[in-house]
Amino acid sequence: MPEKILVVDDEQDIVKVLSKILELAGYEVISATSGSEAMQSVRAGNPHLVLLDYMMPDMTGLEVLKKIKEYSEETYVVMVTGRGSEEVAASVMKAGASDYVIKPFVREQIIKVVKDTLRIRGAEITARNLQQEVQELNRDLEHKVEERTKDLIETQDKLIQQTNLASLGEMSGGMAHEIRNPLNSIALYSQIMMDEITEEDPKREYLTKIMSDVDRINAIVTNLNLFSRRIRREKRPIDLLSTIKTSLRTLSTQFMKNNINVELDMEPEIPEVLASAEEMEEVFSHLLVNAVHAMPQGGDIAIRLRKMKGNSKADFLRDAPPAQREYVEISLKDSGVGIEKDALKKIFIPFYTTKSDWEGTGLGLSVVDRVINDHGGIINVESEPGKGATFIIRLPALESGAQFSAA
Ligand SMILES: Nc1ncnc2c1ncn2[C@@H]1O[C@H](COP(=O)(O)OP(=O)(O)OP(=O)(O)O)[C@@H](O)[C@H]1O
Ligand SMILES: [Mg+2]
Question: Which has the closest alpha carbon to 361: 369, 372, 349, 373?
């Protein structure tokens, strides 16, 4: 398509001559004989270039030039001025003209100035577009880098935490082992003393206290052992639904007593997972007991099971499973008190608890986290104070048709 040029001059003859010269050179030409008409033509025709007379009756060329530039940066203007004043030339260039020609001019001069200006215009517009594109790409890239950095920091935090937990696990496993034996003798001797004293003996009360404390320490030691994962239980293909049901059955009186309604919902055809059923029961019991504690006035627990495919989120980055790997997702939602933002980062840390002495040791969720990790899964939590909490577990699904050889 030929480039479009608007010729503006109040003298009809000049318009005619200029139009002819430019048409012969292959351009499309439109024309105007006043400033206001020129503006109309610019708006209607969007010319690439305007050849603009400096002296016009209704507006000065400078005014028209400013208006054109205001309207469109991409309309380039070459000013045609009368003989003489260098100042005029300087002022039109400052106002945004691309070049100027001094009357009287010859044909070659006009063609050269038009051709040069259009060439520069093309180059400048291309450069501007490219710059814009680069800016957009940069913004895009910055955004992506930001997102990936966030993902990486999250993953790194988790890794650091896991490394710390692994050494803590070692230590607590050792401790649990060392505590068990003396604890057994305390329990044993307390029992012997209890048998030796009369029913009315006031020491009976002390011994009862000692024995219940021993029970409590024993429970902590059991959790420490689970957390340290010294005792690994055998993994088999299991059906999570029946594991969940077992945990629910064990806790059913607690639900009733605390006015808690449990809803269980699952997609059809949930694949099996390779896991220790005992450990999974521990996991669900810990989560369910926490939910009960979070709902002192009663409330609802919703458990959902579904099948899903792995995605590229940071959650899955750690084990870098193939994107198409299948997971079973178990979500456990309660309508309890919820968790403060600061606490959310700490709940999986061993011994972090908001419960008073007899209610919690703060080991429940750290055991849950360890067990899930040991099964190649992940656990996440979403919660806001006053809005309940949702724990989401993802475990790799057992591949359909995979052979399992019992160890
Ligand atoms: N469903 C929940 N709603 C609100 N807060 C929760 C929930 N689950 C856990 N928490 C918070 O996380 C903390 C840590 O939980 P965790 O199970 O590790 O320990 P605990 O319940 O305090 O003690 P333990 O489980 O050893 O008896 C809890 O003290 C509680 O503040
Ligand atoms: Mg707990």
Answer: 349
